[in-house]
Write a structure and sequence with these properties.
Layout: E1 3-9, H1 14-25, E2 34-39, H2 45-56, E3 61-65, E4 70-72, E5 75-77, E6 84-90, E7 95-102, H3 107-122, E8 130-135, H4 140-151, E9 156-159, E10 172-174, E11 177-179, E12 182-189, E13 194-199, E14 203-215, E15 219-223, E16 226-227, H5 228-236, H6 247-251, E17 257-260, E18 267-270, E19 272-275, E20 281-283, E21 292-297, H7 300-320, E22 325-333, H8 334-340, H9 344-355, E23 360-365, E24 368-370, E25 378-380, E26 384-390
Parallel strand pairs: 2-3, 8-9, 22-23
Antiparallel strand pairs: 1-6, 2-6, 3-10, 4-5, 4-23, 7-12, 8-12, 9-24, 10-11, 13-26, 14-15, 14-21, 15-16, 15-20, 17-18, 17-21, 19-20, 22-26, 24-25
Helix pairs in contact: 1-2, 3-4, 7-9
C-alpha cells in the first residue's frame, strides 16, 4: 500500500530547513521511493538539498522552486526566510527512476537523454506507467517530444520551475544537480492507477480569431491580420496603455487566450506575458499559424472555486478506476496565484476539504503539463495539473 507524508519548514537556515522538512517526511516510511521537494528562490537551494539528503539518504529527490509559497494540509506556507515542502512516497510495489540534465545542444535531445537515464536508474528497459516532468519555462514541448521518442506516449503530469518575480531566478533540481535551464523527470513503474485532471477551468467567450503571424514559436504577432495586442484590447475592452510591456501579464490572468486540441476535448491556455512595442505579445507556450485562438475568461472567485472542483474530479476519476487516493500532487499556475492574491487561504481550505485527510502538496509553477481523454501530452499556462496517486 502507498504510504505518503507531507512536511514543511521555514527555518531561517536553508540547510536546517531542508533537514527539518525531510526528517518529518520520512517518518514511518520503510523506504522512500521518491521525494517531491519544492523550495523558494529566497533559500540557498543547494543547502536545502544538502539538508534534505542528510535525512533522505539515497532516496530520489526531484522538484523546483515554487512561486511565493506552497500549500500543504497546514495551509499556505511562505515566509521571508523562504520555505521548503516535501511530499514523500513509499510503496513496496512502486519503482521510481529520477534523472535530470541542464539543456544540452537541443531540448529534444536532452529529453531523450534524461528518459534513458531515468529508465536506467529504475533498472528497467520498458516504458513507465506515467511520469512527472519539471522543466525551465521555455521549451517544454521539445523536452516532452524527446522523452516520448524514448518511451512513447505515456501520461505526463507536472509543471515548470518558477520564481517570485518572473526574472529567471528559478531552479530545477534532483539529488546531485541544481540548474535553471533544463529538465528533470521521475518515471513511475507500478500497476497502481494515477489520475491527472488537467484544466484551465476558464469559459470560452465569443471572441476568437485565426493566428496569422508568429515569430519563433512563442511570439504572437497578428490575429486576423491585426497586431495581437490591439486585437486583444478590442476583444476585452481594455486600454492599450494598460497592456503595455510587463503590465500584460497581470492584466490577462482573468482573460487569457486558449487553443483547442485537435478534437476539442482540451483548451490549453496561452498566457500573454509581455507586450512588445510592435503590438506583438510573448506567450508562455508554443503557437501555430492558421490555428484558432480564443479569448477565455474567469473571475477570481471562479479561479478559487476551480481548485476544489478539480481536486474533486481527481477523486471521481480514481473512484471510477476502483480505487482512492493515497497522496496528491497539486500543480497550480503561479500566475493564477498572483490574481488570487490574499485570498490564497481559500484555495488551501478547498484543497484540504477535498483531500479528506490524505497528504498533499501544492506548488506554484510557470507552466503546467497534463493530458486529457487519451489526447496528447500538452503544456499550457494559467492551468491546473492535479494528480492523485492510488493507494
Amino acid at each position: 500500500m502507498l504510504k505518503a507524508n507531507v512536511s514543511w519548514s521555514t527555518n531561517t537556515d536553508s540547510y536546517t530547513q531542508g533537514k527539518e522538512a525531510a526528517k518529518k517526511a520520512v517518518v514511518d516510511l520503510i523506504q522512500t521511493k521518491v521525494a517531491f521537494l519544492f523550495t523558494s528562490v529566497d533559500c540557498n537551494v543547494s543547502k536545502v538539498l544538502e539538508g534534505a539528503k542528510a535525512e533522505l539518504g539515497t532516496a530520489p529527490i526531484i522538484g523546483c522552486t515554487s512561486s511565493a509559497g506552497i500549500i500543504t494540509p497546514d495551509g499556505f506556507i511562505s515566509s521571508e526566510n523562504g520555505f521548503t515542502g516535501i511530499l514523500a512516497l513509499g510503496d513496496p510495489e512502486l519503482t521510481v527512476g529520477v534523472a535530470s540534465s541542464p539543456k544540452k545542444e537541443e531540448a529534444r535531445l536532452t529529453g531523450q537523454m534524461v528518459a534513458k537515464e531515468a529508465m536506467k536508474k529504475a533498472g528497467r528497459t520498458d516504458s513507465p506507467a506515467y511520469f512527472y516532468m519539471v522543466a525551465s519555462p521555455a521549451e517544454e514541448e521539445d523536452y516532452i517530444k524527446g522523452i516520448e521518442d524514448v518511451i512513447g506516449r505515456v501520461p505526463i503530469f507536472g509543471g515548470s520551475a518558477a520564481d517570485n518575480t518572473v526574472e529567471g531566478k528559478w531552479s530545477i533540481y534532483t539529488n546531485d544537480q541544481v540548474f535553471a535551464d533544463g529538465v528533470a523527470v521521475a518515471f513511475f513503474y507500478t500497476d497502481k492507477k494515477m489520475s491527472n485532471v488537467y484544466t484551465g477551468a476558464y469559459h470560452e467567450t465569443i471572441n476568437s480569431g485565426i493566428i496569422t503571424k508568429i515569430k519563433g514559436k512563442r511570439t504572437l504577432v497578428e490575429i486576423d491580420g491585426e497586431p495581437a495586442v490591439k486585437k486583444y484590447a478590442k476583444w476585452t475592452g481594455k486600454k492599450l496603455k494598460d497592456l503595455e510591456g510587463a503590465n500584460l501579464l497581470a492584466e490577462t490572468v482573468t482573460a487569457p487566450l486558449g487553443v483547442k486540441d485537435r478534437l476539442g476535448d482540451l483548451i490549453a491556455i496561452r498566457h500573454p506575458m509581455f507586450a512588445n512595442d510592435d503590438g506583438s505579445m510573448n506567450i508562455g507556450a508554443n503557437l501555430a499559424v492558421n490555428t484558432a485562438v480564443i479569448q477565455m475568461e474567469a473571475s477570481v472567485d471562479e479561479l478559487i472555486k476551480a481548485t476544489g472542483k478539480t481536486a474533486k474530479e481527481v477523486n471521481k476519476e480514481l473512484e471510477n478506476k476502483g480505487t482512492e487516493a493515497g497522496a496528491y500532487l497539486f500543480i497550480h499556475c503561479g500566475g493564477r496565484r498572483l490574481a488570487i492574491g490574499e485570498r490564497i487561504d481559500e484555495v488551501a481550505e478547498l484543497l484540504k476539504k477535498e483531500a479528506h485527510g490524505v497528504p498533499f502538496i501544492a506548488a506554484f509553477t510557470f507552466g503546467e503539463y497534463g493530458v486529457k481523454d487519451h489526447g496528447a501530452n500538452t503544456t499550457g499556462g494559467l492551468m491546473l495539473s492535479f494528480t492523485g496517486f492510488s493507494k
